[in-house]
Amino acid sequence: MAHHDHTAGAHEEHHEGMGAKQIWSVFFVLLALTALEFLIALGFVHHWQILAKGMFVNIIYILLTLVKAYYIVAFFMHLKFEKSSFIVCSTIVFIFIAYFIVLMLTEGSYLGGALQDHAIYPNK
């Protein structure tokens, strides 16, 4: 049988910088961001009607979701502790995928309106 080194030093070297304290701090940041999203959705938009549904609220949701995605990818998927070349490659791929999605939605929206010779829901 092969001998595996299960000492604390070997474990800490593999997960550099991710102690229990940091994991809990990231958890509470994600919890606070999620609570803020619920406060905006249920409080400001629905209950108190301070904000109207629309582009501004959607941009807020998208920004909060991107911040949460950064925390999840950086800390729980350990991307923050990788070499910078891997981070750059992964980021470039993500940017191209997002760009492709935006292009497809734009093209689909154009084609959906341009190819309709008749009303989608005609009045009878």
From TrEMBL:
Chief subcellular location: membrane
Keywords recorded for this protein, A-Z: Cell membrane, Membrane, Transmembrane, Transmembrane helix
InterPro entries noted in UniProt: Cyt_c_oxidase_su4_prok
Keyword Oxidoreductase in record: no
Annotated membrane topology: Multi-pass membrane protein
Transmembrane segments: 23-44, 56-79, 85-105
Compartmental location: Cell membrane
Protein name in UniProt: Cytochrome C oxidase subunit IV family protein
Organism (species): Sphingobacterium corticis
